[in-house]
Amino acid sequence: xxxxxQGTWVLIxxxxxxxxxxxxxxGEDPFLEVIxxxxxxxxxxxxxxxxxxxxxxxxxxxxxSAVDDTDWHQLSKDRFxxxxxxxxYRRAHAGDFDRLVVVAPPGTLGQMRDDLHKExxxxxxxxxxxxxxxxxxxxxxxxxxxxxxS
Length: 150
Known about the structure:
By secondary structure, the chain is an alpha/beta fold. The chain has helices spanning 45-48, 72-93, 106-115, 118-121, 137-149, and strands at residues 9-13, 17-23, 32-39, 54-57, 64-67, 100-103, 124-128. Strand 4 and strand 5 form a beta hairpin.
């Protein structure tokens, strides 16, 4: 069973927002305090795409096929996950935290896992595959405590 000890960092993230929290007490009654917030503007893909989907001929026939356009919204989410990984690396390298819990939707968690430096991965004591960015801090404390206990 993993516990939130004093000084453990908890990252609450999705593809557009992130809260960096630090536990100021123990794992029995965690008190998470916001130490940094990150956010990015990421409108829906339909507002970012400039063109209609493309079409091309399938050779000498009159048949035409559609080509998917780039998903700018997803690309921006992936880039944001990379930015968070960079922030965590700099802060880990500076010795700002020794233990980390990452809470993010499964897709963001997977993208971050791919981007995280070994120095940060070695400090991760737990992962919670949930979207909690719009939850109040007291709810986050309860959910993270419960998830780490199971």
